[in-house]
Amino acid sequence: MTGNPWGYGKQDGPSVWHKNYPVAEGDRQSPIDIDPHQASHDPSLGPIVLNYDKCTSIKIANNGHSVVVEFEDSDDRSVIQGGPLGNPYRLKQFHFHWGGKDCHGSEHTVAGNSYASELHLVHWNAVKYKTFEEAATAPDGLAVLGIFLETGDDHRWLHTITDVLYTVKFKGSVTDFKGFNPKCLLPSSLHYWTYLGSLTTPPLHESVTWIVVKDPIIVSEKQLSKFRTLVFTGEEEDQRTRMENNFRPPQPLKGRKLISRRV
Length: 263
Ligand SMILES: O[B-]1(O)OCc2ccc(NC(=S)NCc3ccccc3)cc21
Ligand SMILES: [Zn+2]
Hints:
The chain is mostly beta strands. It is built from 4 helices and 15 strands. It binds ligand KL5 and zinc ion.
């Protein structure tokens, strides 16, 4: 079906999502502005543990909202656990959000400051739920690791992704992308904040335990500009709308507790 049911434009962007997705005005919506001084320290909160070693990426795709790398999630070969999580969560996909210029593009902000981009590693609770779709609607169904991207020097490994973006320029395009291990996209320190939130794109399900890592990774402006060569529209559509500013602004905290873990 041509045209997206929702997008990031004036007519179909975050300010009107509530019309088709009323949960947009719910009590645990994401992203949020993270105020480091408001975060309470919970000494019982352990470190995040990633077991991505038998990582198996399958493909990279343009879904009309972002560029997504999908993983084989039929077994527990790539999981995240520890921290606030009660059991291991299976890696399903990762994707990015970015701006049109470097001054903004991330979804979460820190003391009102945006980063140029934000990487989301999406995991689901395969212990309690049979499918991702089922987990995606459950309050403890998903765990998303959020990593900020800041511009500076070239990122040593990001070129593996930016070099193939031209093959998924249009909405609906998919390319084989095997054997990529996203561990190479993480900062050295996994000091994080955690809170209960939602998907930041429709259907905006309130099913995400967010784990936002404090330290950004550094990528070059050149690498980031390659994301902006993607388009929201399909090859068959006459309009070519550059894919950028695909981020939702911060949502009200509504009394939620933000917890931080110093590594
Ligand atoms: O907020 B995010 O951008 O970051 C975290 C995150 C995770 C998932 C999505 N959306 C997905 S997987 N939609 C398809 C779908 C949604 C629900 C059921 C089936 C299928 C977006 C985001
Ligand atoms: Zn996301």
